[in-house]
Amino acid sequence: MECVVQGIIETQHVEALEILLQGLCGVHKERLRIHELCLKSGPNLGHVASEVRVLCDLEQPDPTWMVRHIGGAMRGSGADQISVLVRAMVESKVSKNVLRLFYAIGYKLDHELLRVGFAFHFQRGASITVTVSSVNKMLKLHATDEAVPVTPGIQLVEVTAPASSENYTEVAAAVSSFCEYLAPLLHLSKPGTSTGVVSTAAAAAASLMSDAGVTT
Description:
alpha+beta
């Protein structure tokens, strides 16, 4: 299970966001170059469609593989009263043969993406990860070197934290509290709730860059 919110920011303000995150988190960023393959089950696996995502971290000297399944979101009055999405999520490290396995049991490639950016991992009332990335699509199968942006000039920001049925309320509160610090630059909300870029982003970015002694 995880708590998650998402938002978007213009690429020109990403450096300012990085400066803000560096100050808030107190840790070094981790560079990301993730090849994401979305697989969907075939008819031989039942009437209810299943979707898994296979992730390959190309930033590592020896690329590492992971499989992730995102389940349904929590529903009901409790879910409506919190500002983050709480959803089932399971992930595990796997070998490079994982694609061959999924194809063999009946899964098919639906689409693939390349996410390029950075992430911060830190502890602040919960184990929180902030990911900032450009989402790119492949024009040819597996051609990561030829990927082009899905939304040029816009980057996706995602804040996630692992949770359980016992502590999701506390984790959601920690995520919401942290997101307030980012409010001048972007608005973060439940995935699927598009709010666009915020009007205060340019002024907030200029102030952060000035305070950091960065000339634009």
